[in-house]
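ingest -> validate -> predict -> emit
validate: passed (alphabet ok, no gaps, 361 aa)
predict: started
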Amino acid sequence: MKAFLKRKNIEISLKRYGIDALGAMAQGLFCSLLIGTIIDTIGKQLGIGFLTQTVATISGKDYTVGGMASAMSGPAMAVAIGYALQCPPLVLFSMITVGFAANALGGAGGPLAVLFIAIIAAEFGKAVSKETKVDILVTPLVTIGVGMFLSWLIAPPLGKAAMAVGNLIMWATELQPFLMGILVSVLVGVALTLPISSAAICAAFGLVGLAGGAAVAGCCAQMIGFAVISFKENRIGGLVSQGLGTSMLQMPNIVKNPRVWIAPTVASAITGPIATCVFRLEMNGPPVSSGMGTCGLVGPLGVYTGWVNDVAAGTKAAVTGTDWLGMALICLVLPAVLSLLIHALVRKAGWVKDGDLKLGA
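emit:
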């Protein structure tokens, strides 16, 4: 069995499923749901007719350009997962159907259903790939068959379970904004820097509202925090790659000296409750945005998208100056200032020295 799994490139491990597949799923979400939301927002705010008008009507539902992109989130996630699992072509192409079914039947918790079902279907497809003379029939049949069966069997309960957990987190944050603000901000921020996907986690649990705002705060604290405290070593390139890219670049340095992680993490523990208790910062845009931080400014853009949606729905009167002030402080100013101050104390204690934050070191 071990020899067969090795020959088929089936690696049952936490890294393959919990890091590679989860990270790829977030990229699939980014290239579908998130990009679609951005396109819609740009179209509405700038009054671009082509982006706001209906380009297709399917089963009685109208779709804009952005709406079409968002509608493909299930297939995009599944194909991304299949790519991360190094699926052969016939398996990879079959994942389109699997992702659509799992996401549709999973409901609001579809991303979590897609993650589990796509992994299983992909591995079954890989197991039978090129084992018969009619591979072009067998491989898609097995991959799609397994995926469709599991979508029917477990996607609805998985989706409901994911949303139940997400709703519990959001309810707890509304009930205890200070404590949950700290907890959500720190945990999601840490997940952002670890080689797993905070964006996929937030999407899977549908993390929006006040809890989503705390998640944004934690992610921004990690990215902006590492960008500014390592500026001496990495200069402008490091500032941009971490501040607008990902704080995950610091993982090799964290492994060498975990104390370099103190400043951004403590900063997230401070900005989280400020976001929830002082500014009532909410993420009412796509849940995936809650776990993106300042990566491509997706986190702040998601918050802004939520404001626009709330105003359009009549649940918010207007976007105020306090809203903009809160976003600026939580997403940029406080993470930078707090991280610099805390890191100065860490360096004074002798826990971190020059060169400990050098990228590529």
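The mean pLDDT is 92.
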